[in-house]
C-alpha cells in the first residue's frame, strides 16, 4: 500500500502561551519530530498537516526545511474531527491508506508505525495503544461517587497513529459529519461504521504532550534517543 500521514496540529495552546505544536523540543518545533519520522519512511508517500489558519505559513516554512517536497499544510476545522476530515480531503488518489497522528505526540518511532500498518486492509483498521496499569473507577460526575471498578485486564489506552484505508476513513468521517457525531479519536468513528479495529502494542514512549511538565519529559527522551543513536 501507498500510505499518507495526516498530522493534526491545530489548537491555540492556551496552557502554553501559544500554539503548542510549535513549542521547541530539542532544537525543533514539536510537530516537526513526528513529521520528520514519517518523511524518513519509504512507505509514506504524502504527509498532510492540518492546522489553524494562523499557523499555516509558519508550518509551510518549517516543513520546507524539515521535509521538503513531502509535506502539504491545510487549514483545519473547529474540532479535531473536522481537522482530520480536512486532512483526508487533501490526500491524493495515489494513496490507498492513511495514518492519523496527533502532532503533540513527538516521540512516535518508525518501528511502531510499521507495526500499526500491518493489520490494515479494507474494513480492518488498527491503532497504537498501551495496556492500562492503574485501577480504573467509573465515577458519577456530579457526586463523585464510585459506581464501578473496571477490569483493567481488558482496558487499553489509545494512542496515535491510528491506521485504516483511505476509503474507510473518509466514509467514517463523512458519516460522523452527517450524523453530528463528535468522537475523541478516529478509531471510534471506524468502529461506529462497522470497521474491525485492532490494537497494536506501542513499544516505545509515545505520550501526548498536554501539560507543561510533559515538555521537559519529552525533551529529555528526545535528547536521550539522539545520544543513543550517536553512539551507535
Can I get a quick summary?
The chain has 232 residues and is of the alpha/beta class. 35% of the residues lie in helices and 26% in strands. It has one domain: Spore Coat Polysaccharide Biosynthesis Protein SpsA, Chain A, CATH 3.90.550.10.
CATH class: Alpha Beta
How much helical structure, as a percent, in the residues? 25-40%
Trace the largest sheet across and list its strands. 5-4-1-6-10-7-11
Uncertain segments are: none
CATH architecture: Alpha-Beta Complex
Count of DSSP H/I helices? 7
Please, what is the CATH homologous superfamily?
A: Spore Coat Polysaccharide Biosynthesis Protein SpsA, Chain A
User: Structural class, please?
Assistant: alpha/beta
Overview of this protein structure:
The chain has 232 residues and is an alpha/beta fold. It contains 7 helices and 11 strands. The mean pLDDT is 94.
Amino acid at each position: 500500500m501507498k500510505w499518507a500521514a495526516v498530522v493534526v496540529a491545530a489548537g491555540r495552546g492556551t496552557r502554553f502561551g501559544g500554539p503548542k505544536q510549535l513549542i521547541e523540543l530539542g532544537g525543533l518545533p514539536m510537530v516537526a519530530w513526528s513529521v520528520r519520522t514519517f518523511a524518513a519512511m519509504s512507505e509514506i508517500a504524502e504527509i498532510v498537516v492540518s492546522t489553524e489558519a494562523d499557523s499555516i505559513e509558519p508550518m509551510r516554512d518549517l516543513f520546507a526545511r524539515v521535509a521538503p517536497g513531502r509535506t502539504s499544510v491545510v487549514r483545519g476545522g473547529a474540532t479535531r474531527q473536522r481537522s482530520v476530515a480536512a486532512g483526508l480531503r487533501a490526500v491524493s488518489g495515489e494513496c490507498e491508506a492513511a495514518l492519523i497522528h496527533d502532532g503533540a505526540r513527538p516521540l512516535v518511532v518508525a518501528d511502531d508505525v510499521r507495526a500499526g500498518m500491518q493489520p490494515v486492509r479494507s474494513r480492518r483498521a488498527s491503532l497504537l495503544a498501551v495496556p492500562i496499569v492503574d485501577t480504573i473507577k467509573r465515577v458519577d460526575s456530579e457526586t463523585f461517587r464510585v459506581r464501578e471498578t473496571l477490569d483493567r485486564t481488558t482496558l487499553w489506552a489509545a494512542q496515535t497513529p491510528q491506521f485504516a484505508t483511505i476509503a474507510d476513513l473518509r466514509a467514517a468521517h463523512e458519516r460522523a459529519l452527517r450524523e453530528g457525531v463528535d468522537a475523541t479519536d478516529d478509531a471510534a468513528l471506524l468502529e461506529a461504521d462497522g470497521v474491525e479495529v485492532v490494537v497494536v502494542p506501542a513499544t516505545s514512549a509515545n505520550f501526548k504532550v498536554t501539560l507543561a511538565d510533559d515538555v521537559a519529559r519529552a525533551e529529555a527522551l528526545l535528547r536521550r534517543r539522539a545520544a543513543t543513536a550517536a553512539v551507535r
